[in-house]
Design brief:
The protein is 68% helix and 0% strand. With 111 residues, it is an all-alpha fold. 22% of the residues are buried.
């Protein structure tokens, strides 16, 4: 269901907020939350970015694709990527940390 929305026309933030409530995204499994977050970032629905940050903090490995989307989006999204990286860098596994750091460095967002 969410994959079809991802491949379709852009959705408004208001539509995504309604979907978030209807699906109760926070209670869904990690796969659904991952698809949801990809949809939110693709549509730049900043009002739904809280769920994106939650995925990136609590399902770090699952969120690498979404993290990459943030890194390669606009300034607001890049700020979220940096904030999440700074928040989780101490507690994350070394491989995930290295991947996230490399993404940020190649985008010139950190030294």
């Amino acid at each position: 269901c969410l994959e079809r929305l991802y491949e379709g026309k852009p959705l408004s933030a208001q539509t995504l907020e309604c979907l978030q409530t209807a699906l109760d995204v926070e209670r869904c499994n990690a796969d659904v939350r991952h698809c949801w977050c990809s949809l939110v970032v693709k549509n730049r629905a900043s009002r739904c970015y809280g769920t994106v940050e939650h995925l990136l903090v609590h399902d770090q490995a699952m969120g690498l694709y979404v993290f990459a989307m943030l890194v390669h989006s606009g300034v607001r999204e890049q700020a979220i990527a940096r904030r999440v990286y700074n928040r989780v860098q101490i507690s994350q596994d070394p491989q995930t940390h290295m991947v996230m750091r490399n993404m940020l460095q190649s985008a010139h967002l950190i030294d």
